[in-house]
């Protein structure tokens, strides 16, 4: 999936992945896609809820080698 920007939030604990994601989203235009990489297992539920509450769309999420990857489309 083609992303506009990649955010490396690996090694950060809650709530920092969400804080960094929010800041990165502010730099994007509506319709752009942010790819987020994190190792915080809580990010799965946190990012899903944050995207929905913020009017964004979680397009896809995967996990490989303990790295969670999310693709969020800015609303």
Explain what the structure shows.
InterPro entries: TusA-like (IPR001455), TusA-like_sf (IPR036868). This is Sulfurtransferase TusA family protein. It comes from Virgibacillus salarius. Belongs to the sulfur carrier protein TusA family. The mean pLDDT is about 95. This protein has one domain: TusA-like domain (Translation Initiation Factor IF3, 2-Layer Sandwich). It has about 80 residues and is α+β, with helices and mostly antiparallel strands. The two termini are about 15 Å apart. The chain has two helices and four strands; from the N terminus they run E-H-E-H-E-E. The chain is globular.
Report the structural category: alpha+beta
- Give the overall silhouette: globular
- Level-2 CATH architecture: 2-Layer Sandwich
Mean pLDDT: 96
Radius of gyration: 11 Å
Largest sheet: 4 strands, mixed
How many helices does DSSP assign? 2
Strand content: 25-35%
Low-confidence stretches: none
CATH class: Alpha Beta
What level of helicity do the residues show?
25-40%
Tally of strands: 4
The strand line-up of the biggest sheet is 1-2-4-3
The SSE string, one letter per element, is: EHEHEE
Q: Report how far the terminal alpha carbons are from each other.
A: 17 Å
**Relevant CATH superfamily:** TusA-like domain
What number of domains? 1
In the CATH scheme, what's the topology name? Translation Initiation Factor IF3
SSE diagram, text form:
Blueprint: E1 5-9, H1 16-26, E2 33-38, H2 43-53, E3 57-64, E4 67-73
Parallel strand pairs: 1-2
Antiparallel strand pairs: 2-4, 3-4
List keywords for this structure.
single chain; globular; alpha+beta; four-stranded mixed sheet; Translation Initiation Factor IF3; 75 residues
